[in-house]
Amino acid sequence: MGLRKVLPPGQKPLQADNSLFIVNIVLLLILFFLATGQLMNSRDVPVLLSKTTELDIESLPKPLLLVGADGALTLDGTDLSSQEAAETLAQLSLVHVLIEGEAPATRLIDLMARPELEKVEVRLVTIHYRGEGA
User: The whole model's pTM is what?
Assistant: First the structure.
């Protein structure tokens, strides 16, 4: 017992502070995402949309809902008012939608949000433009 009183009290072993490693990793990730984000946004990639000069409506799938430039709806060549569109589209189980490439995306989103299309399978029809030489 006398020997214990002579020795200084024992020290706890030092533990490494792991929070420093976590902070370093977070800072490296932030740096990485800032660098790659600037690289991705620095390039300007042009997008060329397809264009159709002559459209044969008869070769497209039926029933075809054509969305005009002004938002007017035409089903298989028949113009539809808003009320007629609601009644007619609610009776269909499948409809093919053709909308011009330059139309705002909100026009298509608004069309898809209509309640009468809730239970209708909608397929978006696209037309491939081959150019004048093909």
Answer: 0.53
